[in-house]
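Ticket #4471: structure export looks truncated?
Reporter: QA, pipeline team
Priority: medium

Steps to reproduce: submit the single chain below to the structure queue and open the exported record.
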Amino acid sequence: QVQLVESGGGSVQAGGSLTLSCAASGYTSSRNLMGWFRQAPEKEREGVADIYIGGGSTYYADSVKGRFTISQDNAKNTLTLQMNSLKPEDTAMYYCAATRELSWWAAIRALRSMSPADFSYWGQGTQVTVSS
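Actual output as written to the record:
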């Protein structure tokens, strides 16, 4: 049973920073992706950043490039999202997600598309609120 548990959300003023963490358990494959998604009220869930666990390749949404950094700690089975220069439009529920094991080609396609449909496992979410 794959479990993903997020932590680190909270409230911060614009320009501030937060670090989100996701503790993963229940699978050991490295041929998969993990990523962060977010969903604001009345908006669709969107990809923020993801990473190919096997090779470390990353991909970011244009809206967060240069401000957010996704990283993995394989020894601790932890995924981290460092968020700097936060803006009010970053306010959302943030979710950690993981795919099932993928072929290399499928992984690269999914990495770049960051479609929620490609991710099979989801955490409960952690709220991030940025005030102006």
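Status: closed, not a bug. The export was complete when the record was re-opened. Leaving a note from the reviewer for reference: The radius of gyration is 14 Å.
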